[in-house]
Known about the structure:
It contains 10 helices and 2 strands, in the order ββαααααααααα. With 198 residues, the chain is mainly alpha-helical. Strands 1-2 form a two-stranded antiparallel ribbon. Strand 1 and strand 2 form a beta hairpin. It is elongated, with a radius of gyration of 23 Å. The termini are far apart.
Amino acid sequence: MIFPGSCSAHSVNTGNFTTNVTIRDINRSILNIFRKLRHGTLLEGLADIMILKKVTSVADILEREVQPTIKEWLRRVNLVPELTSIPLSDADRTDHLPKLFQDLIYRLRLGYAAHRPVSQAAAAHGEIRYSQGYSAATLVEESRILQVATFNTLHLHHSELNQDRMLLDIMVIADEADAQLTETVRSLTGMKLAKGAA
């Protein structure tokens, strides 16, 4: 059952190192899995299959892909006139995102049922956005685009994900994004009310 070209070597990047693997090596691994399945050692066979396919958590993918996701968010924001009408540099527009992703990744690793810590950074972000001329509506639009960009990143890397956990993790992302948006809007609204009362 060895396929043609079994002796040719291919360079395989595992993330931490690069190694040469021949088609014969791969075929041998597949045959070994089938042999274990045929002889009833199902769990061993399945374990070997999992070794062949590395599964990565949503938190790990987002941590690895933070900068490309922020870049995609900015690209999408720049397509929305309501947002680009507020004159900001790219740095000022994206300044809050690294901390937001840090909070999101921390929340994903806590698990869905865990108590959510209050984000002080989200409230501070509301104050900054108020001084930059944002409204509650523009904050909501930015948050919507953030979720789209985040889910786009997961879509691009869906083959690496644990499919059994993915929906739960998406629920956590949506919940955290909405919770942070609530804190930000509350802060911005408080600043407006304070100015009106002065």
